[in-house]
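Worked example 2:
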Amino acid sequence: MVFPLKTVEPVFIYNRHTMTNEKLILAIDLGTSGMKVALITVSGKVLGWENESVRLIITPDGGAEQSPDEWWAAFLSAAGRLIKKNQDAGPNVIAVCASTQGEGTVAVDKEGNALGNAILWMDMRGAPYLRKQLNGWINIDGAGISNVLRFVRLTGGMPSMTGKDPAAHMLFIRDTIPDVYARTYKFLNVLDYINLRLTGEFVASFDSIVTSWVTDNRNPDDIRYDDSLIRTLGIDKEKLPDVVACTKVIGNVRSDVASALGLSSNVKVVAGAIDNTAAAIGAGAVEDYALHLYIGTSSWMTAHVPFKKTDIASSLASIPCAVPERYLLTALQATAGGNLTFLRDNIIYHKDELLQEADVPDIFKVLDQIADRVPAGANGVMYTPWIWGERAPVDDKTLRAGLYNLSLNNTREDIIRAFLEGIAFNTCWLLSPVEKFLGRKVNSINIVGGGAQSDVWCQIFADVMNVEIKQVADPIYANARGAAWIAAVGLGEIRFNDIPQLVQYKRVYQPQSQNRALYDEKFDIFKQIYKQMKGIYRRLN
C-alpha cells in the first residue's frame, strides 16, 4: 500500500512547556494504571503532559473493575493542569483524540450515565456464561464448532473463552445483573465512553468494537454489524453503538467541557483507537509487517498486514485498525510490567509490619540498576510471568506465576533480574507463532511503553529474542502520540505514510553473542516448565 507523501512543515518550539507555531492535539492515554494527557504537535513532539492515577478494583469473585466517573474526573483534572501550564499553546489545539485500554465494557443509560463500574480486560467472570451461550454438540475450547467457524469467517477471530473481552462482559451483565441489562441503552468500550463524555455521541470505532465479536470485518474499510453474530452472542442489537472509522471526526468538544478546559468550542473530537492500535502508530510501525512490542501493565506485539487471518491455536488474529485497507496482527499477553508492579507493591514495598516507611523511591529505576548488576541468567533463578493467566500463545486462565530454582545462595537482586528475563522469555515464546503468521522472519522490533524506558530490559529482549530492538524515544508517550497522529490524519494534517519518517529513536540494541547460548538454553527450560506445570495449575485453579 502506498500513500502519497505530504510534507510536514518545520516546527518552532522554544521549550517543552511553551508555545509552538504548529497545530496541536490534546491526546488522551487512558491505561489500566491511570490517565495521561499530553499536548502533541502534528509532527509528534510532546510539549507537555500530566497524569492522574485511577483505582483498580479487584472484586472477591475474581472481577477487575474501574469507575468511569473516576476516569472522567482524572481527565478533567490532568487536562486542566496541562492546559493551565501551557496557556500559550491552548489556542493552537485543533482536536482531542483518545487512546484507551481495550476490551473493557461500560453499560450506560440514554443520558450517558454509567450504570456501574466498567468491567476491564482482566475480568474473567463472564467465562461460564460465554461457554454456555456458545456451546454446541462438537466444541473447540468450550465453543460449538459451527459458532467458531462463523466467528472466524466473519470477524477474523472469536471471543476469548477466558471471558476477558466485551462479548463475555455483556453476557455476565445479562445473566447476573438483569436489571442493569434492562436499563442499558448502549454497551460501550472504554474508548467509546470517553468519546461519549467528550461529544455526547454514542459511537464505537472500527477497532474498539472488534472484541464484542459481532461485526463483519471482511472489508477493513467497511466494518458493520452482522445479525447472525449478534443472535449467536445473544445480545440485543439496539444496545450496540454506531460504528465509525478511527480517523472519523465524530463532533466538536461539548461546550461545557471546552469551557472547563479553556478550549475553543470548535475543537474537533476524532474517534481515536484502543491502545494496541494507537501504540503501533505511535511506535512508527505503520508499514506492512513492521512489528512493535509494547511493554506496559500487559504486553503485546502487533504489525499491520494486508490480509485478514486467524491462528486459533496461538490466539492470534489480524483485526480492523486505523490504517485504511489494512488489518493489525494482534498478539496479546496478559501481564508484563504488571509483574514488576506486583513485585514492588506486594513483596518489596508491601505495607505490613515488616515495612513501615512511608516513602517509596522510583522503584523501577532502582530495579533497572539492580538488574544490571546481575549476570545474564539471574544466577540460575527463573520466573514465569503468568500472574493473571495467559492469552497468547496459549489461552489459559489457570496459569500462574512462579519462581524456580531458588537456593540459599540467591538474593533479591537475582529475583529482580529473573522477573525481567521471564517476561522476555514469555515474549520470545510468542514470537515464533507471530513469525509464522506473518510468513517471514522478524529481524527488528520497535519497543514502546513504560518498560521500554529500561535500557537493561531492552538489551535483555534483544538477547533473548535474538532480534534488533529499536527503543523509540519517549516510549511512554507512544499511545498518546499514536492518538495525536490518528487525529492529524483525520483532519488532513499528515498522512499515515509520513509517520515512519517522523518517529525518533533513543537507541538500537543488537543481540550480544556472549549471552545467546545461555538464553537459548533457559528459553527451552521455560517452555518445559509450561508443559510440566500446566496440568498442575489447572488442578489448583
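DSSP finds 16 helices and 27 strands in the chain. Residues 513-540 form the longest helix (28 residues).
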